Amino acid sequence: MPRVTPAHEQQVRDRIVRAAISVFNDKGYHRATMQDVVRVSGLSVGAIYTYFGGKTELFLASCTMSMDGGFGELGDRLARGRTLADKLGIAVGFFIDAIEPVDPGTPGSATYLVQAWAEAGQAETVRETLVRRREQIGAVGQILLREGIAQGQLPAWLDVEAIALGFSALLDGLLLQRIEDGEAWRREDAERRAFAMLELLLAAGPGSSRPAVSRPAPEPFSLAPAASATDLAS
Fold it and tell me: What is the pLDDT of residue 1?
């Protein structure tokens, strides 16, 4: 019997995970079945279970592949930028491309990431993968911002960690809007909102002083309104 090489095993594993990405994106985590992955991959049930113990394990592997592949692509695109504005624009454009791929047959990140966030509360491994994604996004943002400060294009007082993670949260908010808007979602609206904040950041000149913004004290809040005196008496 010919020996199965590690390279062949990796190819089969990747084939299964790519099929799982397509299934989870199309049907959602809870509606998807291992049989769906068997059908899309063209492999046998036995082949699937040789590499993955079940749907949860396969979902984690598909999260990892989609996120790692995305950062590799982002790195390739950033290499094309010459200025800070170019690179920041490329990063934002890439994120929006991932939300709604140009190729309609390619799974986007919107539906997929929302599923991962929904599972994160029950699956520690999924949560850890999402934390790693956030850290990677923040690291890329911090590198670009520090480069801008070193080149004298941004003020030295910028809190690069806060800006990088805050802007990534804004981009994830645009991703959620894609889900909320459904067919009404328009790429040009997402671009306008993201680039408006980017332009505001770039407008902060290197010689500008840090603005003073008051921070209000925390106040109690509840989704349920407080009971009135009448309610308590009844």
Answer: 43
